[in-house]
Amino acid sequence: MRVRATLYQAYHHGLHNRLMESRDLLQKTHMAQVIGVQITDNQILYNRALTQAGMAAFRNGDVQMSHEILVEIYQNLRFKELLGQGFSRQQDKTQEFEIEEKRRQIPHHMQINLQTLESFHFITSMLIETPLFAENQHSMNK
Predict the structure, then answer these.
(1) How distant is the alpha carbon of residue 102 from its chain centre?
(2) Which of 106-135 are b and which e, b meaning 16 or more Cβ less than 10 Å from the residue's Cβ?
(3) Residue 60 backbone dihedrals phi, psi, to 5 degrees
(4) What is the pLDDT of residues 90-126, one digit of tens each?
(5) Is residue 142 part of a domain?
(6) Is residue 140 part of a domain?
(7) Sign of the four-CA dihedral 94, 97, 101, 103
(8) 65, 57 Cβ separation under 8 angstroms
(9) Domain hosting residue 37, numbered range
């Protein structure tokens, strides 16, 4: 219950653009180290809190931090499952596994807009990569 309360609080801070409070809360509780042994529902909640912190960083203008946070989510191709907003594409699923997977889904009105999240990720990537590309343009082979 304490882990869930901490994750809900970090999500709330991120939702209201209080990036430092959200990030500090996740770091001070060492949530990244503990979340691997937690139940799947807490892992989904952790990913959602981390995503809100990344979106808060973008809204506050901290492009570098936003990119660092959002890359953690987008480096996995199953990011919809990580956020509790999609299903896995396994062919050999058991009936119990399908029921459990459907139970974990976040209601539609509580979902994070994936198109907005993807836009934040692409914009931060572009803002970081464009100066690097322009800097190295003369040294690149055409």
Answers:
(1) 20
(2) eeeeeebeeeebeebbeebeeeeeeeeeee
(3) -85, -5
(4) 666 777 877 777 777 777 778 888 889 999 999 999 9
(5) no
(6) no
(7) positive
(8) yes
(9) 2-135
Model pTM score: 0.81
Q: What is d(CA 96, CA 99) in angstroms, rounded to the nearest whole number?
A: 5
Q: Provide CB contacts within 8 A for 117, sequence distance 6+.
A: 51, 55, 70, 73
Q: How far is CA 48 from CA 9, 43, 75, 129, 140, in A?
A: 12, 9, 15, 26, 39
Domain total for the chain? 1
Closest CA to 42 of 81, 97, 3, 84: 3
Please write the tens of the pLDDT for every residue from 56-68: 999 999 999 999 9
Q: Note whether residue 19 is domain-resident.
A: yes
